[in-house]
Design brief:
Rossmann fold, 6-stranded mixed β-sheet, single chain, binds adenosine-5'-triphosphate, 510 residues, 3 domains, binds magnesium ion, alpha/beta, 24 strands
């Protein structure tokens, strides 16, 4: 941990205020960053973490703020100013240009190497990008590949790498990372942590936003907790435990995150996959019983998401069949799957599931708009408003009203909108892909309670998750995927995180 007594903080923020249309989202927030420290920033969805970061980055203008660097007052009116002061950002929303290559994205907003100052030297640009990627251990990404072609995890890796590009004129001293690991695999996260360690050794300060307790306890030296736009406390990490943090974040104690199963699930088969094959999975066979929760585990790229996509009709079924309530269903599409009672919460919620420019109400009631319209013509706005308010409340959605546009919600709250939508009409089968990614711990507990409640009413649930405690805490059985094959099926009872991880890795070596 850094010795903070002698020197003024590397960066100090105080009196940060910001309101949107008269609603304060930051109230007199203050934060110090010392050289050589990893400073965790935690808080529920909508607490104001990203807003504070955007003020530091000069991309949102504050109502008021005081910033000093090494004791000297500075102003950050635009993003170039932040860059020149040595601040680097990995924002929560990927700001990549999908139509450009990986190399172009890495050097975006910086001078590209040229031939005699005239034409871009593409060879050199790619070489430089390759060097940066390799230095950081990212050797599987082709620098000429279009950004749009990369998986969300790889896109995040490129955004991370971009923040680490060294500039000859200006050495960065502060790195701000807003939920960088949300779409990273375990190995990629480990790599990021090694990078963070070496930055610390160089005397940089790292501000690290995460909803994952285990990460925070692993890498942070100090922690600041925000609630409702205010800073609640800053503490050395040794001085707090997870329960303290949850209390600071939510103002309530959370007894139990994973609600236990209270009634045994039914024995009737609800859904069967028989020798299912799509472009992403091969010969997948399993059964889902009424009221059962089936977890799907596996490493990144093992075909977990593809199982859900196959069931949902998002990928064409090449072979095998899906049997729902004893009847084979063919040629499902995402729309007809919904009509068959299958609800899907996709992994990349913000890009795949939401219409950002529409209201919360619209987004929640989207798949059932027809029920809410009179004779398929006029939308009954009153009904939409009521339904979405009720559903929003059930996932503790923090929005001003169902009329607020989704774009204005915090990241985690955007994700809750899709969850609320899946609850709109209790489905027969619910397919969840990383259901609580980016969701704060209080809301996670709420969502887990909902999942239990829905399954107790008979809905079968299939859940893909990289969060092992979540898989173990909720699932009855766990399917293990590898290379598109279903390689193992185990009961979750008595299974530990370690043994589950071993199953996933062993599966990889088979
Ligand atoms: N452009 C905007 N217009 C109106 N309100 C906004 C805007 N941007 C953010 N907000 C509101 O400010 C509050 C704080 O949002 P912020 O994104 O900072 O939360 P966060 O702590 O980063 O949450 P998460 O953990 O979900 O990412 C939220 O209530 C959000 O709805
Ligand atoms: Mg945020």
């Amino acid at each position: 941990m850094a010795d903070s007594s002698a020197l003024p903080p590397l960066l100090s923020i105080s009196g940060a205020n910001k309101s949107y249309s008269g609603v304060p989202v930051l109230i007199d927030a203050a934060l110090d960053l010392h050289a050589g420290e990893v400073h965790a920033l935690m808080g529920e969805n909508g607490a104001g973490k990203s807003t504070l970061i955007k003020l530091m980055a000069g991309v949102v203008s504050p109502d008021s703020i005081r910033i000093t660097m090494r004791g000297q007052p500075v102003t950050i009116h635009h993003s170039q100013a932040a860059f020149d002061l040595g601040l680097r950002f990995i924002h929560q929303e990927l700001n990549i240009v999908p139509q450009l290559s990986v190399a172009e994205n890495i050097f975006l907003n910086r001078p590209y190497p040229t031939h005699a100052g005239l034409f871009v030297n593409w060879g050199k640009l790619n070489q430089q990008a390759r060097r940066v990627l390799d230095q950081l251990g990212v050797d599987h990404i082709d620098t000429r590949q279009l950004m749009a072609r990369l998986s969300p995890g790889d896109q995040m890796l490129v955004s991370i790498v971009r923040a680490f590009v060294n500039d000859e004129t200006q050495q960065a001293s502060i790195y701000v990372m807003d939920e960088p690991t949300a779409s990273l695999s375990g190995q990629e996260t480990a790599m990021l942590f090694r990078m963070i360690e070496s930055l610390k050794k160089r005397g940089c300060a790292i501000l690290y936003v995460s909803h994952r307790m285990d990460e925070v306890f692993k890498i942070a030296d100090r922690i600041t907790v925000m609630r409702d736009g205010q800073v609640v406390e800053t503490q050395p990490i040794e001085a707090v435990n997870p329960a303290d943090i949850i209390r600071m974040m939510t103002g309530r104690a959370l007894q139990q995150i994973y609600p236990p199963r209270e009634t045994p699930h039914g024995g009737r088969i609800l859904l069967e996959a028989r020798g299912l094959q799509t472009k992403g999975v091969k010969d997948v066979t399993f059964e889902l019983l009424e009221g059962q929760i089936l977890g799907i585990a596996g490493l990144n790229g093992s075909g977990r998401t593809e199982v859900l996509r196959a069931l949902m009709g998002a990928d064409r079924v090449i072979d095998g069949e899906i049997v729902l309530d004893g009847l084979a269903v063919r040629g499902l599409s995402p729309t007809s799957a919904w009509q068959h009672g299958l609800a899907y919460v996709p992994e990349e919620r913000r890009s795949q599931g939401l219409i950002l420019s529409r209201s919360v109400g619209n987004n929640i009631t989207l798949p059932q708009l027809r029920h809410l319209s009179h004779a398929g013509m006029l939308l009954n706005h009153g009904a939409e408003y009521q339904t979405s308010r009720k559903l929003g409340d059930s996932v503790r959605l923090k929005s001003k009203s169902p009329a607020q546009t989704v774009r204005q919600l915090s990241g985690g709250n955007q994700q809750k909108v899709i969850f609320a939508r899946a609850l709109a009409r209790p489905p027969r089968v619910m397919l969840l892909d990383e259901p609580t990614r980016g969701v704060d711990i209080g809301a996670k507990a709420d969502i887990y309670a909902l999942i239990r409640q829905i399954s107790a009413a008979g809905t079968g649930i299939i859940m893909v998750s990289s969060d092992l405690p979540e898989l173990l805490g909720l699932s009855d059985r766990i399917l293990i995927m590898r290379g598109g094959y279903l390689v193992d099926q185990v009961s979750a009872e008595g299974l530990t995180e370690e043994s589950l991880l071993t199953l996933c890795y062993n599966a990889e070596k088979l």
